[in-house]
Amino acid sequence: MASAEPQETAPQRTVFERLGGPDPFWRIARAFYARIDRHPQLRPMFPEDLEEPIRNQAEFLIQYFGGPGDYSKRKGHPRLRMRHMQFRIGVAERNQWVETMLGALQDAAIPEPERTEMVRYFEHTATFLINTDE
To answer: Which of 49, 90, 100, 106 has the fewest CB atoms within 10 Å, measured from its CB?
Structure first.
């Protein structure tokens, strides 16, 4: 006789858990900023010293994808739109940023299906940050 009890499903593991912890996110941030450092259009948007942006990005990604909340403990709520409003972000800048991030995911050897999940987030968020129609 079949049980009338509903079967419990295992909780969904986060991207952070599936990738095995913080190291992949640090690889992404380092690879991304290595590419930014060589990018003629995007480089002027970033400070000369990239160590703080690397830390901010790694900690933000760790937190967003299910890891510890160190970013918010240190910086407060992410408020991505507010933090990026000082920069002119149009479709061209959005596309260059996404292309740079896709290269960083490749450089950091992020596997599937996590890569696709991350790409979906990055593409959506980059579009959300567009603040000019020029």
So the answer is: 49
